[in-house]
Write a structure and sequence with these properties.
12 helices
Length: 369
């Protein structure tokens, strides 16, 4: 018999393209209950299904999103996801502090609201979370938002919300932050969401394949281009330090010996506006087989960048709620390893999948060091 566990009340930080893909996809499956949900580990995770996820709060900085119903905000410029017509929502997007969340190349596009200080907003946000019953916060902050990510991590610590950190600022994988979540018995899953069939997951699987088959990998790169504000934001190179670390370590972790830094290059390449939500990834691998005979691999991956992460977030949210239900705190290592690029403990993908299966069944849980 399948258990019914009730709704998972979620809040989102950053009503951008990624969230628009998740939100519209949730509505798509709600309107088509006969369809199997693609991209999940399980249709059911410890009694929780996709349709149990309900967004009851939302926070953003954009002038054309703050104060608007959530269904209008997900369609607002510069968002590009327009898959289905959404029903009216009674969730009103609340103001979030800007801090370092808006880069110089997107400020004119986002037009951030700055009507309250971070201190004022902190109290308003905590009250709103309590009033709405929010229990899991999903962070879709832009790359490079260190101070903003830490602000929201503190919000979770002060309100008891589980934290799903989809972006590459290290919270779950930082020992000090992880300790704070563990001591408060609040779950955190992170950092930096993997795609379903994304650039880094494909690159790391191919890298491990070369070694599992006994070959050597001598040189490799991964270059990515896209047309939305994510890529426009990443034109500001000093915002990319943690992103490059996250993507590079995700691949390096699958190799028996680390590659020299000058033999591996992974990172965004450029913003091409007409690509819109399309992300194009170029992966190159060069190495040696039997008798030092060389091989080369050139791969091009063309995906909708927003559809790519949504199913992974559905699993992350459900894992976070399971952890809340069971009283677990700190980094949920199995879920982080399977669903995120830069978890506190790197595993191979089969190992991480198995560990997450055990977690779902309640047979095993690691809670940090």
């Amino acid at each position: 018999m399948v258990l019914t566990m009730g709704k998972i009340k979620c809040g989102v930080v950053g009503v951008g393209n990624c969230f628009a893909g998740l939100y519209q996809g949730l509505q798509y499956y709600k309107e088509n209950p006969e369809k199997e949900v693609i991209g999940l580990m399980h249709q059911d995770m410890a009694g929780y299904k996709t349709q149990d996820i309900e967004f009851v709060s939302a926070f953003d900085v954009g002038a054309n999103k703050v104060g608007k119903p959530l269904d209008e905000a997900v369609m607002a410029y510069p968002n590009m996801v327009d898959w289905i017509k959404l029903p009216n929502s009674n969730v009103i997007v609340q103001e979030s502090p800007v801090l370092d969340g808006v880069g110089k190349y997107v400020e004119d596009v986002i037009k951030p609201v700055k009507s309250h200080s971070p201190e004022e907003l902190k109290e308003k946000i905590k009250k709103h979370i309590k009033d709405t019953g929010t229990e899991v916060i999903v962070s879709y902050l832009p790359v490079g938002s260190q101070k903003a990510a830490e602000f929201w991590a503190n919000i979770c610590l002060e309100t008891g919300c589980a934290f799903v950190n989809c972006m590459p600022v290290f919270i779950a994988s930082d020992p000090e932050w992880e300790k704070r979540f563990r001591e408060k018995k609040i779950p955190v899953i992170g950092d930096d969401i993997k795609g379903q069939i994304g650039a880094t997951i494909v690159h790391r699987v191919l890298a491990k394949l070369t070694q599992d088959r006994g070959a050597e990998l001598d040189k490799t790169y991964q270059l990515n281009v896209g047309g939305n504000t994510d890529f426009q934001n990443m034109l500001e190179r000093n915002r990319l330090e943690s992103k490059k670390i996250s993507k590079t370590e995700s691949v390096q972790s699958q190799l028996k010996d680390r590659m020299d830094d000058d033999m591996i290059h992974i990172g965004p390449s450029d913003h091409v506006p007409f690509l819109n939500n399309t992300k194009i990834c170029f992966i190159y691998m060069e190495g040696r087989q039997w008798a030092d005979i060389p091989y080369k691999l050139d791969l091009k991956l063309d995906v909708d960048d927003k559809a790519n992460s949504a199913g992974i977030v559905v699993d992350a949210v459900r894992a976070a709620k399971i952890a809340l239900d069971r009283g677990y705190g700190g980094a949920i290592e199995s879920a982080s390893a399977y669903l995120m690029k830069h978890p506190p403990v790197q595993m191979s993908d089969p190992e991480a999948k198995s560990a997450l299966e055990y977690f779902i069944m309640g047979k095993e849980q690691k809670t940090g060091k």
